[in-house]
C-alpha cells in the first residue's frame, strides 16, 4: 500500500457538506415537546438590577416560562475560575449587569417568534452605575469597580523574571521602547452558537447538544456550576460545526443557562444565537496594552526584553481566561534568541463582553508589540529590518531550543524559512522599486514578521496564573491528553472515533488517511465518527478543537490507536500462521510472511476470528477489536518553582513578507503581495494545510485592516452587525503565495505540528510593519489596529500638518 | 451625539411658548408619538414608536420639562426605553421675540443611545435625530399657523 499520510487527498467531509447533508446543530432535530428560547439582554453596560417585571410576558399565549437570574441562581454555583480573585460569574445577570448584551431573562415559548414578542413585554428597571471601558483607566484609584468583592478590577497579576534582565538593560547600547494597543476583535463563524438542553428529573440529568468544541476541562466546570456529578451532564457535539476559530469554547455559559431553563420550564429547550447576539454577547479576543522595552546592541542584537501586558478580559474573567496571557508564555520571545526576559502580566476587567478563545489566542496580542519593536529597532539604528531579524533569529544548530521562559522549541530552521520569504517576495528588488515609487509620490512599503506558532497546549500552563506558592497548595496539572478509538467489526470494516470536535478542518479525512496507512486499508473504507459524546466517547480534559491540536495530538492518538489494532491483528495472524510476528508484514489488507509471500492471512479474517471465533485466539487475548489510545507528551510538564513552563507541545514557524500601497487621498491600504512561509513539521495533508493557512490569513487580515469590536466611552457596543463590524470577504483577500519547509517534530510520531493559526498571529503585525515602512517619510508610528482608511488618513493629515508647522517655525 | 439649530415661528413669544408646551400639540407633532399623558407637574409619559436603521420598536418614555423661564427658556429631558434599547436626550429651547408676531427659536440637544440601537443604529443616528427634530418643528410651525388662522 502506498504512502497515504502526507498526500493531498480531497476531504471526505465535502460530499455531505456540498450536498446539504451536513449535520449541524440546527439539523439534528429535537426531542418531542421542545420549546424555543429567546434571551433578553442588558442594554446598559453597568447598572444595578432593581427589578424585573415578567408578568406581562408570561401572559402571552404560547409562553411556557420567563426565567430570571434570581430563579436560575437557585440551581447554580458561580463558575469556577483559574485565578484567586473571587469573581462570581453566572451565565445570567443576578444583581448587576456588567456589559451590554449580558443575559437578563430567558423566555421559553412554543416558537422563537412568540418568545421574542413576549420578551418585549418584560420590564427591567436599572439603576445606572458609571462604566469603565478603558484598559488603563480600569486600574486607576478612583475607577468604578465591577466586582465589589474583588475590590479592584484586576483579576490577575503576575510578574516573571527570567535570566539577567537588569544586566542586559545596563549593558545595552540602546533601550528602545513603545506602548502598543491591540484592539478587541472576534471570530465570526457562519454558524452561531446553538444548544438543545434537556433536563430529565427522573435521572436528575442534563443532556446538552451543543456546538461546543472544548477544551473539555470545561465539562467539569459546567457540572460543578450545575451542582451535579459530572456523569449527570452529558454533552453531545454534532459531527459538523459551521466554523469556530476558537469562539465556540464560549458556548459553555449558555449551555448551563439553557440547562437550567429546561429544568425550570420542565421541557427541552432549544436556542440558536442570532448574529447580533453573537457579536455582542458570545465571546471575543482580548484587547491588550503592552509596554515593551528592548535592550539593544548597536548591531541590532536584542539582549533583553521587558513587557508589561495588560489584557482586558471584559466584564467577568471566565474559563479559560486568563489563558490568553499565558498560552504563549513559553514563546514570549518569539523566533528570537533573547535569554533575558521580564514580564509584568495583568488581566483586568471592564464593562465589555467577556473574552475567550479565538484563533491565534494570545499570539496576535504578543507578536504585535514584539514584531513592531523589532522594526523600530531597525529604524532607530538605521539598519535594514531584515538584518535585525537575521541577527536575532534562533539558529538551526540551537534546536531543540530552550526559551527564557521555559519553552522547548522542538525543531526548526528559522533562517532558511526567513530567507525563503525574502527571496520569494523579492525583498531586495522591492526596496529598489520602493525608492523609485517614493520619488513618484507613491506610498509603498514592505513588512516582515517572523513568529513561532505554538500548538497542542500543555494543560499545566494556565496554572502559571497562580504564584508557585499558590500552585503548591493544589495538585499539579500537566499533559495534553487526546484520545482516539479504532475498532473493527466482524466483517473487518473500520470505525474510528475521535474527540477533536472538528469545526471544518477535515479531521475525518486526515484520521482516515492515518488509519489507512497503518492498517493498509483504503482510506475510503474507513469510517470516522466525529461526534463527541461525553457519556460514550473516549475523551480527556484536554480534548477538543483548539490550539491547533489535531495535527500534533489528535493525529498522534489516532496513529497509536491504529497501531494497537494492528498489533492485536498481527498477534492473531501470527498465532494462526504459526509464524513469529517479526516475520510478518502487513500490506494490501493481509499479513504476509516476509520470506514466503505466498503465505498470507487476510486482515479481515484476523478481525473476523476475534468476533466469530474467540476460542481460536491466542491464550489470554480478549475477543473483539476495539482499541483506545490516550496520547500525551512528556515535555508537557507542570510549571516549576521558577515559573518555567513549556506551554505547548510543538512550535512551528511562520515568516511573512507583505507589500502594500497606500492611497494618499483616502488612506486605504492595498496589499500588493503576501508571501508566507510555514514550517509545520511533516504535513499530513498539504491540501488541508493550505486551506487552513488561507483561512488563518484571512482572519489575520481582518485584524490588520478591518475588524474591531468598538465600544463608546459608556460601554455601548457600536459594531453589532456585519454592516458595522467589517469582515474581509473574498474580494479583499490579496494574492497569496504559500511555501513550506518541513523540519519534522521529534515530539510527535508523525513529525507533524499544528498550523491553522500562524497567520492570524502574524498578519496583523506584518501588515502594520508594511504600513509603517511605507509611512517612514512621514514619521508615523503604527501602534494600534485596525489600519482602516480613516485611521491612516487621520495619521497622514496630522503628519502633514506637523510638517507644515515645522516649515512655518 | 449632539446638535443645534434654529427657526422662526410665526407667533408672538408668549403664544409660541404656550403652544410649545401644550400636550395636545406635542402629541401631534412628535414623530411616532402614540400617546402623551401628563403624570405630574411638567412631567409626561409617552409611547413612542420609531425606527432607526433596521431597529424598529416602541419606547416607553418620560418627558420632563425643566428650568422653566416663561416665556423665554426651558429644558426637555427625555428618557426612553424599550425592546430596541434606550434613548436619553436633553434639549434646550430659547425663544427670542422677533417683532409682534414672530419668534426666533434656538435649540440644542445632546442624546445618547444604548443597546441594540447603538449596536446597529450608530451610523444613522445623527441623521435620524435631525429628521425627528426637523419634522417636529415643521409640524409645529404648521400647527401654529393653523391655530393663528382659526383664532
Automatic annotation (TrEMBL), chain A:
Aldehyde oxidase/xanthine dehydrogenase a/b hammerhead domain mapped to chain residues: 19-130
Record-linked Gene3D superfamilies: Aldehyde oxidase/xanthine dehydrogenase, a/b hammerhead, Aldehyde oxidase/xanthine dehydrogenase, molybdopterin binding domain
Signal peptide positions on this chain: none
Pfam families: Ald_Xan_dh_C (PF01315), MoCoBD_1 (PF02738), MoCoBD_2 (PF20256)
Source species of the chain: Fictibacillus enclensis
SUPFAM superfamilies: CO dehydrogenase molybdoprotein N-domain-like (SSF54665), Molybdenum cofactor-binding domain (SSF56003)
Protein name as it appears in the record: Carbon monoxide dehydrogenase
Cross-referenced InterPro entries: Ald_Oxase/Xan_DH_a/b, Ald_Oxase/Xan_DH_a/b_sf, Ald_Oxase/xanthine_DH-like, AldOxase/xan_DH_MoCoBD1, AldOxase/xan_DH_MoCoBD2, AldOxase/xan_DH_Mopterin-bd_sf
Keywords associated with the record: Molybdenum, Oxidoreductase
GO molecular function: iron ion binding; oxidoreductase activity
Automatic annotation (TrEMBL), chain B:
Gene3D superfamilies tied to this protein: 3.30.530.20
Top-level division of the source organism's lineage: Bacteria
Protein name: Carbon monoxide dehydrogenase
Amino acid at each position: 500500500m502506498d504512502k497515504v499520510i502526507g498526500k493531498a487527498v480531497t476531504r471526505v467531509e465535502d460530499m455531505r457538506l456540498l450536498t446539504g447533508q451536513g449535520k449541524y446543530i440546527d439539523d439534528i432535530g429535537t426531542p418531542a415537546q421542545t420549546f424555543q428560547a429567546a434571551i433578553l439582554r442588558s442594554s446598559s453596560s453597568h447598572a444595578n438590577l432593581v427589578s424585573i417585571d415578567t408578568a406581562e410576558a408570561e401572559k402571552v399565549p404560547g409562553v411556557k416560562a420567563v426565567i430570571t437570574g434570581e430563579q436560575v441562581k437557585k440551581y447554580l454555583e458561580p463558575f469556577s475560575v483559574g485565578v484567586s480573585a473571587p469573581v462570581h460569574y453566572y451565565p445570567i445577570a443576578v444583581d448587576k449587569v456588567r456589559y451590554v448584551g449580558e443575559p437578563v431573562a430567558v423566555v421559553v415559548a412554543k416558537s422563537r417568534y412568540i418568545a421574542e414578542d413576549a420578551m418585549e413585554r418584560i420590564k427591567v428597571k436599572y439603576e445606572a452605575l458609571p462604566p469603565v471601558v478603558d484598559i488603563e483607566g480600569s486600574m486607576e484609584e478612583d475607577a468604578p469597580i465591577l466586582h465589589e468583592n474583588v475590590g479592584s478590577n484586576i483579576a490577575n497579576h503576575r510578574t516573571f523574571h527570567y535570566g539577567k534582565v537588569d544586566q542586559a538593560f545596563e549593558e545595552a547600547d540602546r533601550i528602545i521602547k513603545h506602548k502598543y494597543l491591540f484592539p478587541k476583535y472576534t471570530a465570526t463563524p457562519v454558524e452561531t452558537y446553538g444548544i438543545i438542553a434537556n433536563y430529565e428529573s427522573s435521572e436528575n440529568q442534563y443532556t446538552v447538544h451543543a456546538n461546543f468544541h472544548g477544551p473539555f476541562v470545561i465539562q467539569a466546570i459546567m457540572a460543578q456550576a450545575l451542582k451535579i456529578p459530572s456523569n449527570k451532564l452529558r454533552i453531545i457535539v454534532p459531527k459538523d460545526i459551521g466554523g469556530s476559530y476558537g469562539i465556540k469554547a464560549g458556548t459553555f455559559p449558555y449551555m448551563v443557562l439553557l440547562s437550567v431553563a429546561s429544568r425550570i420550564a420542565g421541557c427541552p429547550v432549544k436556542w440558536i444565537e442570532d448574529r447580533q447576539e453573537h457579536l455582542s454577547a458570545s465571546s471575543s479576543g482580548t484587547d491588550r496594552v503592552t509596554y515593551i522595552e528592548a535592550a539593544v546592541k548597536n548591531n541590532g542584537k536584542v539582549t533583553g526584553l521587558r513587557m508589561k501586558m495588560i489584557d482586558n478580559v471584559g466584564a467577568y474573567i471566565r474559563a479559560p481566561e486568563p489563558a490568553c496571557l499565558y498560552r504563549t508564555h513559553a514563546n514570549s520571545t518569539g523566533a528570537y534568541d533573547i535569554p533575558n526576559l521580564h514580564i509584568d502580566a495583568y488581566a483586568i476587567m471592564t464593562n465589555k463582553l467577556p473574552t475567550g478563545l479565538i484563533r491565534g489566542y494570545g499570539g496576535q496580542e504578543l507578536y504585535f508589540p514584539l514584531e513592531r519593536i523589532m522594526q523600530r529597532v531597525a529604524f532607530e539604528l538605521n539598519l535594514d529590518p531584515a538584518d535585525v531579524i537575521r541577527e536575532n533569529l534562533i539558529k538551526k544548530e540551537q534546536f531543540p531550543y530552550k526559551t527564557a521562559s521555559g519553552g522547548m522549541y522542538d525543531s526548526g530552521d528559522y533562517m532558511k524559512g526567513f530567507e525563503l520569504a525574502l527571496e520569494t517576495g523579492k525583498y531586495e528588488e522591492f526596496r529598489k522599486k520602493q525608492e523609485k515609487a517614493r520619488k513618484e509620490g507613491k506610498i509603498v512599503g514592505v513588512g516582515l514578521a517572523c513568529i513561532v506558532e505554538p500548538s497542542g497546549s500543555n494543560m499545566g500552563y494556565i496554572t502559571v496564573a497562580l504564584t508557585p506558592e499558590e500552585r503548591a497548595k493544589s495538585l499539579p496539572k500537566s499533559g495534553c491528553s487526546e484520545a482516539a478509538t479504532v475498532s473493527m467489526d466482524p466483517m473487518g470494516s473500520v470505525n474510528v472515533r475521535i474527540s477533536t470536535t472538528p469545526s471544518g478542518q477535515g479531521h475525518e479525512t486526515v484520521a482516515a488517511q492515518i488509519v489507512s496507512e497503518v492498517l493498509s486499508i483504503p482510506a475510503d473504507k474507513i469510517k470516522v465518527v466525529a461526534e463527541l459524546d461525553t457519556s460514550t466517547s473516549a475523551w480527556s480534559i484536554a480534548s477538543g478543537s483548539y490550539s491547533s491540536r489535531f495535527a500534533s495530538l489528535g493525529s498522534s492518538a489516532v496513529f497509536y490507536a491504529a497501531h494497537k489494532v494492528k498489533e492485536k491483528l498481527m498477534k492473531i495472524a501470527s498465532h494462526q500462521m504459526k509464524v513469529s510476528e517479526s516475520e510478518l508484514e502487513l500490506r494490501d489488507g493481509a499479513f504476509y510472511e516476509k520470506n514466503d509471500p505466498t503465505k498470507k492471512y487476510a486482515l479481515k479474517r484476523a478481525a473476523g476470528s476475534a468476533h466469530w471465533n474467540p476460542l481460536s485466539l491466542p491464550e489470554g487475548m480478549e475477543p473483539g477489536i476495539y482499541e483506545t489510545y490516550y496520547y500525551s507528551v512528556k515535555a508537557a510538564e507542570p510549571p516549576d518553582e521558577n515559573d518555567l513552563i513549556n506551554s505547548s507541545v510543538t512550535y512551528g514557524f511562520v515568516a511573512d513578507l507583505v507589500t502594500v500601497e497606500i492611497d494618499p487621498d483616502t488612506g486605504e491600504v492595498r496589499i500588493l503581495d503576501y508571501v508566507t512561509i510555514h514550517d509545520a513539521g511533516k504535513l499530513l495533508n498539504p491540501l488541508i494545510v493550505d486551506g487552513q493557512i488561507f483561512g488563518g490569513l484571512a482572519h489575520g487580515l481582518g485584524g490588520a485592516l478591518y475588524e474591531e469590536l468598538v465600544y463608546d466611552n459608556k460601554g455601548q457596543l457600536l459594531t453589532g452587525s456585519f454592516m458595522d463590524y467589517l469582515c474581509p470577504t473574498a474580494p479583499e483577500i490579496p494574492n497569496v503565495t504559500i511555501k513550506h519547509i518541513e523540519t519534522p517534530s521529534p515530539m510527535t510520531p508523525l513529525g507533524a505540528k499544528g498550523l491553522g493559526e500562524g497567520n492570524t498571529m502574524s498578519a496583523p503585525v506584518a501588515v502594520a510593519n508594511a504600513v509603517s515602512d511605507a509611512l517612514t517619510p512621514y514619521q508615523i508610528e503604527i501602534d494600534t489596529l485596525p489600519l482602516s482608511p480613516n485611521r491612516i488618513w487621520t495619521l497622514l493629515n496630522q503628519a502633514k500638518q506637523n510638517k507644515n508647522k515645522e516649515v512655518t517655525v | 451625539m449632539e446638535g443645534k439649530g434654529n427657526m422662526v415661528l410665526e407667533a408672538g413669544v408668549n403664544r409660541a411658548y404656550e403652544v410649545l408646551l401644550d400636550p395636545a400639540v406635542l402629541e401631534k407633532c412628535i414623530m411616532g408619538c402614540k400617546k402623551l399623558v401628563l403624570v405630574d407637574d411638567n412631567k409626561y409619559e409617552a409611547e413612542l414608536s420609531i425606527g432607526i436603521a433596521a431597529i424598529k420598536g416602541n419606547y416607553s418614555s418620560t418627558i420632563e420639562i425643566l428650568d422653566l423661564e416663561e416665556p423665554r427658556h426651558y429644558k426637555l429631558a427625555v428618557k426612553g426605553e424599550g425592546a430596541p434599547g434606550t434613548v436619553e436626550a436633553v434639549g434646550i429651547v430659547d425663544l427670542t421675540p422677533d417683532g409682534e408676531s414672530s419668534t426666533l427659536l434656538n435649540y440644542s440637544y445632546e442624546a445618547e443611545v444604548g443597546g441594540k440601537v447603538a449596536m446597529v443604529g450608530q451610523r444613522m443616528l445623527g441623521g435620524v435625530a435631525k429628521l425627528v427634530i426637523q419634522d417636529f418643528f415643521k409640524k409645529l410651525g404648521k400647527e401654529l399657523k393653523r391655530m393663528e388662522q382659526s383664532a
